[in-house]
Design a protein that fits this description.
Distance between the termini: 53 Å
Number of domains: 2
Number of strands: 10
Strand order of the largest sheet: 4-3-2-1-5-9-8-7-6-10
Largest sheet: 10 strands, antiparallel
Shape: globular
Radius of gyration: 21 Å
Structural class: alpha+beta
Length: about 190
Amino acid sequence: MGSPGPRERNTVTVRFLDDEIMEGRIDRLTMEEPNIVLELAHQATNNERALVPLPSIKRITFDTQAPTRQQREASSRKVAIRFQDGEVLKGYLYGELEHAMHGITMRLMTVDKDRLETLGIPFTALKALFYVKTWDSRPPEFDGEVDLRLSKRLSSPLVDLMSNIGDLEKLRKRGTISESEFQRKKKKILDNI
């Protein structure tokens, strides 16, 4: 039911750890080899091929398609893929993970269930893959929707707002929220002051 398997002569998109993106064709890709040979499609460059070691890659997109209704209904396992650089990719796992010597391959449907991608992720880029119950497990006071503590404690709102900034800083230091999310939520709190 949707196991990815080795790919033959596909056009792929390679996203590197430094966020550079390169497209090309590969003869065969499995995560069993320590590198890939990418035949570059752009005639405007001087490069014909590239030998790309897997440790320089964040993820490879082998295939992207619009899912069928049956695929959308069959995809219910929520996963959050956390990369070494802190990025989190969320989606529904379609089928099973394929484990290989240098990484994993999977079919992942977007959170909106509008796109189904076949991805290869080298172990060197992967921090962990989590099977999750909900998309966001942080306390409700930090989700931007409802600030429960503000509605409960109205006796000292200014102190509460400053305490919220301290709590956000703790979440940022732990890596629970990104720097941009921290700045956005901090601005929202400061706007209330």
